[in-house]
Design goal:
This protein is mainly alpha-helical and about 425 residues long. It has 21 helices and two strands. Strands 1-2 form a two-stranded antiparallel ribbon. The chain starts with 5 loop residues before the first strand and ends with a helix. About 40% of the residues are buried.
Length: about 425
């Protein structure tokens, strides 16, 4: 009977389901945690563009402090990280969905109810994060996309990729009503930058909450449905495909495929992201229309391929002891990804918003990127320190409690072999 629990001598319910349980730390795959930790660095560096106000200012071509080397750093961030870090996290989330489905099947338990509890809990995190801290949230996106992907999880690897066109069509139908609104919003980036200065940079927490709520409904919501949904959705399916093919669990059996993915996707993605769209359109303006359309479509689909190249490259590097030891330092951060993602929002809003230091619109691009890198190093260290004493992060503990039922106390120490 699903939902049956057991009680300890003190009468406390400790587990809602004896078969559907979180993965024990000692059974986790290093590659997943390392990839998640690296993706979290990219998410932080990209989000700092939004936290600081630089995104709206630069889009409006307003004067904004760039700092030493800021133009180069901004170009590199846009080229190699923007859209790729969130997509990599989406790929890993798709992997998680496939892993949990296999676990449920092995135990003979129903998966759908469990998955809905887990996605619902993530959506609650996303709503709280969006309204109380920062509305450019990815958790709600992941929850919505997870619901769309669930019906396709049982397809064989060769067939599940065919669900991408269907899901993209569904996402387009969802986005259509919001496209005119989004077009009007994007015509006034200077106005949104001024509103950010007023409500975020100088306002109280309640003033920021009021503006954040309005922005969530009228700006971020439409952007989420028209931009993020179709951009992130294919990577969830790719994550399921990667897991079913064994690329993550047994990479040594798929070295040829991983090398092919790395060289082809990284090279194509690198070139497609390196060339600005304006320059590409100008370069192909004089050639016949069929070839011009083909080149533009190739560049469009090659841009997100860089994310797949990143994933395949890291999997190949982790086979080498030197890289495995050093990249493995990020694994604890990957185990606490939800906690550390939310912590990034707490710290950054305190730095840039008026109820904190009020530095919105004042910190140069280079200072944001260098400061964000230093903060990420602190996050990696704090993850090691926390997991040396506790089995999971506080947000992970709450998410799992909401999903599985009452779990062992977050203060229960881990055995040393599980920390490694």
């Amino acid at each position: 009977m699903e939902g049956r629990g057991r009680r300890n001598p003190g009468g406390v319910l400790t587990l809602i389901d004896q078969n559907l349980q979180p993965v024990a730390p000692g059974a986790r795959l290093l590659a997943l945690d390392v990839l998640r930790g690296l993706a979290l660095l990219g998410v932080l560096l990209v989000n700092l563009d939004e936290f600081s106000g630089a995104s709206w200012a630069l889009q409006a071509k307003l004067l904004y402090p760039m700092g030493w080397g800021g133009e180069v750093l901004s170009f590199l961030r846009h080229t190699f990280l923007e859209g790729k870090a969130a997509a990599l996290l989406g790929l890993l989330f798709g992997v998680g969905l496939a892993i949990q489905l296999e676990s449920a099947d092995r135990s003979g338990r129903a998966y759908t109810a469990f998955a809905l509890r887990r996605v619902g809990a993530l959506a609650l995190f996303g709503l709280a994060h969006s309204f109380l801290l920062w509305n450019v949230d990815i958790l709600l996106d992941y929850a919505l996309i997870s619901l769309m992907v669930l019906p396709f999880l049982r397809l064989r690897p060769g067939r599940i990729l065919w669900s991408i066109p269907l899901l993209l069509l569904v996402s387009l139908l969802i986005a259509l009503p919001f496209l005119p609104l989004l077009g009007r919003l994007e015509q006034d980036p200077a106005g949104f930058y001024r509103m950010g200065l007023q409500h975020y940079g100088a306002g109280s927490w309640f003033e920021a909450l009021e503006f954040r709520s309005w922005e969530m409904l009228h700006v971020i919501g439409p952007m989420r449905l028209t931009n993020r949904l179709p951009a992130l959705l294919p990577f969830f399916i790719l994550g399921v495909y990667f897991w079913k093919k064994g690329f993550l669990a047994q990479p040594e059996k798929h070295l040829r495929a991983l090398r092919l993915l790395f060289y082809s996707c990284f090279l194509l993605g690198f070139l497609a992201n390196l060339v600005p769209q304006e320059a590409l359109h100008a370069a192909v303006a004089g050639i016949p229309r069929p070839f011009r359309v083909l080149i533009k479509l190739t560049a469009f689909f090659a841009r997100p391929a860089l994310t797949v190249g990143y994933a395949a490259g890291i999997l190949l590097l982790l086979r080498r002891p030197w890289w495995r030891a050093r990249l493995g330092l990020l694994a604890p951060l990957g185990r606490m990804a939800l906690t550390q993602y939310l912590l990034q929002s707490v710290v950054c809003t305190l730095v840039f918003n008026g109820y904190g230091l009020g530095l919105y619109g004042q910190v140069s691009v280079s200072a944001c990127i260098l400061g964000g890198t230093a903060f990420f190093a602190l996050q990696a260290w704090s993850s090691h320190a926390w997991l040396a004493r506790f089995p999971m992060g506080p947000a992970e503990w709450l998410w799992r409690r909401m999903t599985y039922g009452a779990l062992p106390s977050v203060s229960a120490p881990l055995a040393s072999k599980e920390i490694a």
